[in-house]
Specification:
Elements: H1 8-15, H2 23-29, E1 34-38, E2 41-44, E3 49-52, H3 55-58, H4 67-79, H5 92-104, E4 111-115, H6 118-135, E5 143-147, H7 156-161, H8 165-168, E6 178-181, H9 186-189, H10 196-213, E7 220-225, H11 241-251, E8 255-259, H12 273-277, E9 283-286, E10 298-302, H13 304-317, H14 330-345, H15 348-364, E11 372-378, E12 381-386, H16 402-412, E13 415-416, E14 418-420, E15 423-426, H17 434-455
Parallel strand pairs: 3-13, 5-6, 5-7, 7-8, 8-9
Antiparallel strand pairs: 1-2, 2-3, 4-10, 9-10, 11-12, 12-15, 14-15
Helix pairs in contact: 4-14, 5-14, 6-13, 10-11, 15-17, 16-17
The structure holds pyridoxal-5'-phosphate (PLP).
Pyridoxal-5'-phosphate binds next to α6.
Length: about 450
């Protein structure tokens, strides 16, 4: 047996700072060290297999062993491992990726900017929108409206757009210029007896009140939303929500920004969540599934009116003074191009639509479990919210850590899922089969029943 003092887990604890982690808890429990992947499964260093119920972080759409992506990376590494697109330079992988992305867009878009992560992409959106409104001679029109429980990333401005207290507390966030409106979670936010449609109407009215209170069209620049909120607990918007919200956004001449970092490339059963929910974005952000997460890359697509304004301004100022060393990195771009080819060749949407009911019906079979308050989801994303009392929807206290306990119990049965508070998220690789979904849910049931029995 390996010397425990020198195990990968203890070396991890000695050296690594993990994102979004309680460091003291990590020192005690150590790390699950993942050694390899195959299809929808990953294996730890002892060879134990786990179904990856979250596709990593909602991202490894093609699973963990797609050889064509490895080959695309290798080919590009052997041809042109790096080049930039500053100073009027370019390269074929970047160009082809932009062409393919624009061809997929749910509404006509004009140009694409590439970054490396969802956070950088959303920070870029803020810079773009500020620059755009300066270009149009509207220097006061700069505020972003985001939503409580939104997740848009972790950099200073993307973290400010995020509406999760844990991302703000002790970090002096949010920074100015970002305000948050209601989270569209009907189960938690609706008044007694309020229909989804009435809830959506009330939220649109609240949005309008907030915009007016913040200075109206003169100061409010953009509204940003994930079509389905991901890290906030998989919140599927109530019926008619985006239609009503969008009317308000347009009324105040604000730009609509769709953060499709999770929803993009099929997750909700259409290529983009914007199609599933009738959103007509002026700016659309992608990452994660763009490269099936095999290499870091994100993209921001902008409409032609936005492009024309910033293009004029770049001529006036001398440049659009924004960019990254790795914008459109050729190896990441080549992997993303190959990813998009695979989605098309294998008709990933038809597959998703075929297996989505297996996931959604399977999740809904948990609705009568004594610990389950709500089951929600669409396409290949869903969540189960655990409650103390089904009738009153009373939640557990955060320190009871029921969600993390269930996730940990599921892990011992070979399933990796994500506890977002007491909402357990499911977002498996898009290639998952009906049979694998059944296995995933069977493993989950074992974990859930075990925690329920312990609570006895
Ligand atoms: N936007 C959404 C909707 C996300 O879910 C995430 C990450 O989970 C981000 C942005 C940030 O992406 P990244 O972690 O690549 O910075």
């Amino acid at each position: 047996m390996a010397n425990p003092g020198n195990s990968a887990s203890s070396r991890d604890v000695a050296t690594l700072l993990h994102p979004q982690t309680n460091f003291r808890a990590h020192e005690k429990q150590g790390a699950v060290v993942i050694a390899r992947g195959e299809g929808v499964r990953v294996f730890d260093e002892d060879g134990k297999d786990y179904i990856e119920g979250m596709a990593g972080l909602w991202c490894a759409s093609l699973g963990f062993s797609e050889k064509r992506l490895a080959d695309a990376a290798t080919r590009q590494l052997n041809t042109l491992p790096y080049y930039h697109i500053y100073n009027h330079k370019s390269h074929d992988p970047g160009i082809e990726l932009a062409e393919r992305l624009l061809a997929l867009m749910p509404v006509p878009m004009s140009k694409v900017f590439f970054a490396n992560s969802g956070s950088e992409a959303n920070d870029t959106v803020i810079r773009l929108v500020w620059y755009y409104n300066n270009a149009l001679g509207r220097p006061k029109k700069k505020k972003f409206v985001s939503r409580q429980r939104a997740f848009h990333g972790s950099t200073l401005m993307a973290g400010s757009l995020t509406g999760l207290p844990a991302l703000h507390r002790e970090f002096d966030l949010p920074l100015g210029g970002v305000v948050h409106t209601d989270c569209p979670h009907h189960y938690r936010g609706a008044l007694p007896g309020e229909s989804e449609e009435d809830f959506a109407t009330r939220l649109a009215e609240n949005l309008e009140k907030l915009i007016i209170a913040e200075g109206g069209a003169e100061t409010c620049a953009a509204f940003i939303a994930e079509p389905v909120m991901g890290a906030g607990g998989v919140v599927v918007p109530p019926r008619t929500y985006f239609e009503k919200i969008q009317k308000v956004v347009k009324k105040y001449d604000m730009l609509m920004v769709a953060d499709e970092v999770i929803c993009g490339f099929g997750r909700t059963g259409n290529m983009f969540g914007s199609e599933t929910f009738g959103i007509q974005p002026d700016i659309l952000v992608v990452a994660k599934g763009l490269s099936s997460a095999y290499l870091p890359i994100s993209g921001i697509a902008i409409s032609d009116p936005v492009y024309q304004a910033i293009a004029d301004n770049s001529a006036k100022v001398g440049m659009f003074g924004h960019g990254f060393t790795y914008s459109a990195h050729p190896v990441a771009a080549a992997v993303a191009v190959e990813t998009l080819r695979i989605y098309e060749e294998r008709d990933i949407l038809t597959h998703i639509r075929a297996v989505a009911p297996v996931l959604q019906d399977g999740l809904r079979r948990f609705a009568d479990h004594p610990l389950v308050g709500e089951v929600r989801g669409v396409g290949l994303v869903g969540a189960i919210e655990l409650v103390r009392d089904k009738a009153t929807k009373e939640a557990f206290r955060p320190d009871e850590r029921i969600g993390p306990r269930v996730a940990k119990a599921a892990e011992t049965h070979g399933l990796i899922i994500r506890a977002m508070g007491d909402s357990i998220g499911f977002s498996p690789p898009l290639i998952i089969t009906a049979d694998e979904i059944d296995q995933m849910l069977a493993r989950f049931r074992k974990g859930l029943d075990e925690v329920w029995a312990e609570m006895g």
